[in-house]
Design goal:
With 70 residues, the chain is mainly alpha-helical. Helix content is 46%, strand content 0%. It has helices spanning 14-20, 24-32, 48-54, 58-66. Helix 1 packs parallel to helix 3, helix 2 runs parallel beside helix 4 (58-66) and helix 3 (48-54) runs antiparallel to helix 4 (58-66). The longest helix is centred in the middle third of the chain and has 9 residues, at 24-32.
Length: 70
């Protein structure tokens, strides 16, 4: 697997962290380098889209949807 999809000790990927923090440009860069857009993260299986949505990061959520997130 690509290092871009490597989870940390909380089972969070760089994409999930970027989306939770509303870092849209970083999310786009990660996706362009192979980040799995619908990969479940954290202990509850939340995806990057879920993190963006529940954190109120609307621009990031819309970007993920435009890139094909479910």
């Amino acid at each position: 697997p690509s290092i871009v999809n490597q989870p940390d000790s909380l089972n969070m990927t760089a994409l999930c962290w970027a989306c939770e923090g509303g870092k849209t440009l970083i999310a786009e860069i990660l996706i362009s380098h192979g980040a799995e857009i619908d990969r479940p993260c954290f202990i509850d299986g939340t995806t990057a889209l879920g993190f963006a949505a529940r954190s109120g990061r609307h621009e990031t959520a819309m970007t993920l949807l435009a890139r094909g997130a479910d």
